[in-house]
Amino acid sequence: MITKKILNWYDNNKRSLPWRARCSAKKKEYFTLVSEFMLQQTQVKTVIPYFNNFLKDIPNLQSLAKVSEAKLLKHWQGLGYYSRAKNLKKSAKMIIDNYSGRLPNNFEELKKLPGVGDYTASAVSAIAFNQQIIPLDGNIERVLKRILNLKTEEEIKKENLHKQKKIFGKTSRSSDYAQALMEIGALLCKPKNPYCYKCPITKNCLSFKRKDFEIKKKDKKIIDKFYLATLYKNNNQLLLIKNDKFKFLKNLLIFPMKEITQSDSLLKSSKKLNVKMSNMNMNISIDFSYIKNKPKNGMWIEKTKLENYMIPTFTKKIFASVKHNL
Ligand code: SF4
User: Fold this and answer.
1) Is residue 188 lining ligand 1, measured as CB closer than 6 Å?
2) Which of 9, 64, 192, 202 has its Cβ near the most Cβ atoms within 10 Å?
3) Ligand 1 in contact with 146 (CB < 6 A)?
4) Which CATH number describes the domain made up of 2-210?
5) Given pLDDT bands bounded at 50, 70 and 90, which one contains residue 279?
6) What is the pTM of this model?
7) Is the CB of 215 inside a 6 Å radius of any atom of ligand 1?
8) Whose Cα sits closest to atom 2 in ligand 1?
9) Strand, coil or helix: what is 93?
């Protein structure tokens, strides 16, 4: 019953998203792959214009496998987590080389593709191949927790959530069903103030019955890190280097930077900046200096042209915080 109610609601209320456009099976595979990579860590409304521009320029697996890194990263600029873009290109190459240009329709084979973990493999299996799998993204997880009013540490463990997914039942429309559950989470079962009055499954929902909509989450450990960024100036130019040192945002242009201790950071009287990135709380001290010789992995960039380069958000924030002193 719950399956029918959810699918009926979806048929009448689903958003028209570009990756849901009617198209051939081969195109659907490509649309699903690209959109699922973009949607890892990024919201639907942010992804839509990126997806459209990406598709205009890189319309299929063949063009993706051949695209230059600069063009690929330019398309990803602003979405963050750039390793996703690189893995997407590697996956395209692998699909062409090992799977005759068609996305494998098998969960285990999908997981062999770079950047495809359990979640993406299940989302692609369900959406592109109509397999009876419910991917557990943040939206579906919230709907599940609300329907069963799951609260305790034991109840909200991933393994338990996967077991509890059986309440969603089965349908031959698995692709629509996975998207319908995601859509209920995104449009109705919001983290705060869910729109229960529009929801098709109020009768099945324990949280609604108990009027208790609080969502329990596992504590995410935030790590404090301390860095010293040095801005080297040469007339109107600033020195940026290719990041081959830090594991995050590899190969992107950043200001020369090193990790320091918290006590070193307290000793510095320079400008301070705090930036949150994933589970890292970056405490950045900013210094200014001069340098004669450009390091091998560095380049001088005009201050006014910085915007034209692929630089990570935290580097942009460093620049924004000091540009009036430069
Ligand atoms: S009834 Fe309300 S809380 Fe329950 S699933 Fe629907 S929107 Fe979420």
Assistant:
1) yes
2) 64
3) yes
4) 1.10.340.30
5) confident
6) 0.74
7) no
8) 196
9) helix
- 199 pocket-lining for ligand 1 (C-beta < 6 Å): yes
Q: What is the position in ligand 1's atom list of the atom closest to the CA of 185?
A: 8
Q: What is the mean pLDDT of residues 259-278?
A: 86
Q: Where in the chain is the domain with CATH 3.90.79.10?
A: 223-325
d(CA 63, CA 34): 13
pLDDT of residue 239: 95
Distance from C-alpha of 78 to C-alpha of 49, rounded to nearest angstrom: 11
Nearest of 202, 190, 165 to residue 6 by alpha carbon: 202
Residues 23-75: pLDDT tens digits?
999 999 999 999 999 999 889 999 999 999 999 999 999 999 999 998 999 89
Q: Give the number of the atom of ligand 1 that is nearest the alpha carbon of residue 199.
A: 6
Residues 223-325: name the CATH superfamily. Nucleoside Triphosphate Pyrophosphohydrolase (3.90.79.10)
Nearest to 37 by CA among 89, 93, 78, 102: 89
CA of residue 183 to ligand 1 center, whole Å: 12
